[in-house]
Predict the 3D structure of the following.
Amino acid sequence: MIEVSDLYKSFDQNHVLRGVNLKVHDGKSMVIIGASGQGKSVILKCLLGLIKPNSGKILLNGFDPNSRQKSVIRSKVGMLFQGGALFDSLPIWQNVAFRYLHGKQKINAKEARKIAIEKLERVGLKKSFADNFPSELSGGMQKRVALARAIATQPEIIFFDEPTTGLDPIMAQVINDLIRELVVELGITAVTITHDIQSVRSIADEVALLHNGIIQWSGLLNQLDKSKNKYLKQFIAGSTVGPIESLR
Amino acid sequence: MIGFTAYTGRMFLNLCSFIGELAIFCIRVFTNTLTPPFFMRAFFSSVVQIGWLSLPVVGITSFFTGGALALQIYAGGARFNAEEVVPSIVAIGMVRELGPVLGGLMVAARVASSIAAEIGTMKVTEQIDALSTLSTDPIKYLVVPRLVAAFLTVPLLVGIGDSIGILGGYVVGVTRLEFNNTIYLINSINYLELWDILSGLVKGAAFGCIIALMGCFFGMRCEKGARGVGQATKSAVVSASVLILAANYFLTEAFFSS
Ligand SMILES: Nc1ncnc2c1ncn2[C@@H]1O[C@H](COP(=O)(O)OP(=O)(O)O)[C@@H](O)[C@H]1O
Ligand SMILES: [Mg+2]
């Protein structure tokens, strides 16, 4: 379970988060939507303990990521970064098996490689890519590798930051389906950030809309189209008229 | 007037916060250096990057510097009939001063820039954040191996540079200045003391630390975009070079003034 209450974060005079409240139950998939620059990535970075919030409480399965329990959390959390964030000095399989090659979960390299190939196949990549470097792969393939890395150690919680941005619609749907499958199959609690409404419909159990530093609306996926919330209606319609200013 | 005061005030505060940031960084790096785990593979690849691949640059620079030094000292020495000091002054000058300083500056240009660019790119593409989320401390994985590698290899480079510089002086001395080659060699070595050589190597180790720390520090605080990486690279090279020259003075003062 993920619980966020009254989360505040500002960078100098830029008040990005102004009291965010969120709750995601075990095994559920929460999708956060919102215009770009609204602080969606900042929320994830706070959840991961990469950015220290000014105030507010965060608990991931009972642990606070901004405390000494950080390392406990990190071993249970997977993250897919917006740009993939693959290590370009390491071949694909070492990227995927990173946790198995270093640190507490270290196992021998042969085993690690086997697991990496398993995970690559799970996300639809052929074994023959294992020894390529990230720069030799297309954007969609890199996303898949990043996905394989995120699920490599069976996380309890997983975060996806704009998993489909920059992909063609077909590849985007492949990634969406993959995420949905993984979440259902592995029973992982997931938080996905996107501004792609198609992704929302494919992967969400619940949806939250972030604007002006707070969650303006949240609810189940089937309530999405029934809601009268003016932010949500504008966002779904992709309209330039409404409370979300189009020029910023 | 108020504008000026406010401006200098702000600059001063920025400077203080910068120095604070750097100090915290160095403390974090040193504590991480002394605690496990140590990333061996990253260390060896840094040794190759910093040490092995810098050899040609350092070698060529030292050779020509040694040669030029021989010509200069010969010309200077001739003014008071002391041409025979060429071999020993070339050796002492190379070993104590020019070997470490030029070696340090060349390695700074080559290595501080590439470290800053590499780590800076990792920073802006979120690879550093990715490391943290994969339970690996970026300081341990990226900074410590480079620091230790630079600390160990730059003195070696300096030692090699010293020898090649002396060789450069010898070649010029024998071919252009008509020195007898055995006498040149004997005089090179005879007046050289162990401490001359050691002090240069110690300087090299200090410069190695400066180079790695500056490269990593500016890489880690790199800002978004290609511009950010360019800025980080430039800052790393400039500050490493300036700090090397400043540190060289203070080390020389500490070693030889009495
Ligand atoms: N490390 C940082 N330092 C300063 N400002 C930041 C930092 N990270 C994000 N911001 C600012 O926070 C705001 C939200 O950014 P972000 O979370 O990336 O937006 P998005 O919702 O598109 O993911 C932006 O205005 C950005 O400039
Ligand atoms: Mg973002």
In short: Chain B touches chain A at residues 37, 39, 122, 125-127, 129-136, 141 (CB under 8 Å). The pocket of adenosine-5'-diphosphate (ligand 1) is lined by residues A 11, 14, 16, 34, 36-42 (CB under 6 Å).
